[in-house]
Amino acid sequence: MYFKERAHAKLHDAQLQASLARFQGKFVPARKTAITELDDFEGTRDAAAEIRQRALDDLDVWLTIFDENARARGATVLYAQTPAEINALVLEIAQRHGVRKIIKSKSMVSEESGLDHAIEAAGMTVVETDLGEYILQINNYEPPSHIIGPALHKSREEVSALFEARHGTPRKDAIDELCLEARGVLRTHYLTADMGISGGNFFVAETGSVVLVTNEGNATLTTTLPKVHVAISGIEKVVPTLEDVATLMRLLPRSATGQSISNYVDILTGVKDRGEFHGVEHMYFIVVDSGRSAVLGSDVRQALRCIRCGACMNHCPVYQNVGGHAYGWVYPGPIGIVLTPMYVGLDNALDLPYASTMCNQCGVVCPVKIPLPDLQRKLREKEFERDLRSWHERVGLKAWGWLARRPALYGVATRVGVRMLRTLGDRNGMIRRLPFGSGWTDERDMPAPAGRTFREQYKARKAASHPDALAVSVQGKPSASEAREGSRKETLG
Ligand code: SF4
């Protein structure tokens, strides 16, 4: 509800701004280089979008096939309609197996349900094993600020101080030393945990497997050392075949971190057979709806193609300046702008569809070609239709709509408007304060317009290059371009 207020505060947070500047120098250039490794990057994007859309178009069928194949390999498949049901199912499984300690690798769906808090409230211990998530957990469960780099808003100094305070060890400043310290702490937990919880990048229908894509190896240990593994992910994460996973994997790490392949890709299928050494004794899938089927039935359904690479937020000028916490819920950036209102209700996320410049950088980089600005615009339309915007915005938009349908009047109004705006510019041609539009000028100056509309300038330039056309027009007869325009209007009419 309070994106604007939070974003304003984040713009003045010097430490956050330094972290965001560091982050911008990493993922964006790395992706740019990595996608050149593919012979046909755009063709691969088309194929990936088609795979995800095909899965969504027949989601019930692929879920049924996944369910049958997972059960055939000894796994149990459970379904959660709501966040509360996710937590209830996990606690039920934990009680059934006498679990006291749980280790977790990254799961955004469990963030949706506040699973860690539910586990602790039930008297069990839970330890996050993704380094970023671990840092946030020991910092009093600070929320993640990015879907693949949950703690990227934190500086090295902050992490050093946090480890010193929480681990009671001498302060370390080198990043590799900090990593080593976290690894030592986590290793004890891996070896003493009774149950491991993971997310799922993909659920593979043809084999009943879950695919996990990580860089730290923590998911591999989380899902293989304890005797029980619970994989939690949304219904939309089903893909038909392993061949499809191979195509998506050509894009996911490249779009996310600029890697050709992530350090670890686990494909986990069923429980271990009698006599087998590796594998878990009990495997559970929790397949979560929690608002997804409503998205599937809506006009923003393409958002469910998302493979959570984070490229849209990495390239978004809004995210780059305010970071993930400004968005107020689990999913930040351009995809969060669409998913959050759909999952928590448009009334509870009124600012989010407006947290975008509509520059379409997100749509250009999305590996599964989600038309994010179009979806954001649809949510804006819904807010307008449901009278959820303030009265002055609604009146303003209605007035603009009325004017835009009357081209002659629109032309006069814009001619007056640009001349008035021109007078507001200082001698450098910048408007420092815009009356009734302070949002545009609070944080930066706005260039004053040229004083003539685009149409006026275009007409003048054409006349300069074709003086004859101007002469005809001046004598009161239509110029060639006006005649063409007139005949087009007649045709349309
Ligand atoms: S919307 Fe596209 S770019 Fe953004 S996280 Fe999802 S797949 Fe990646």
Question: Any overview of this molecule?
Answer:
This protein has 25 helices and twelve strands. With 493 residues, it is α/β, with parallel strands linked by helices. The chain folds into three domains: 1-37 and 305-389, Fumarate Reductase Iron-sulfur Protein, Chain B, domain 2, CATH 1.10.1060; 50-290, Rossmann fold; 412-492, no CATH class. The strands form three sheets. It has a six-stranded parallel β-sheet, with helices on both faces. It has a four-stranded mixed β-sheet with strand order 8-5-6-9, with helices on both faces. The model is unreliable at 476-493 (pLDDT under 50). It binds iron/sulfur cluster (SF4). Residues 255, 306-312, 335, 365-368, 370 line the site of iron/sulfur cluster.
Which tags fit this structure?
single chain; 493 residues; alpha/beta; Fumarate Reductase Iron-sulfur Protein, Chain B, domain 2; Rossmann fold; 6-stranded parallel sheet; 4-stranded mixed sheet; 25 helices; 12 strands; 53% helix; globular; binds iron/sulfur cluster
> What profile does the largest beta sheet have?
6 strands, parallel
Share in β-strands: 5-15%
User: Which consecutive residue ranges, at least 5 long each, have pLDDT under 50?
Assistant: 476-493
Can you tell me the CATH superfamily of the largest domain? Answer: NagB/RpiA/CoA transferase-like
- The tally of domains stands at 3
Reported by name, the CATH topology of the largest domain is Rossmann fold
Number of helices: 25
> Strand order within the widest sheet?
1-10-7-4-2-3
Structural class: alpha/beta
- Report the CATH architecture of the largest domain: 3-Layer(aba) Sandwich
**Number of beta strands:** 12
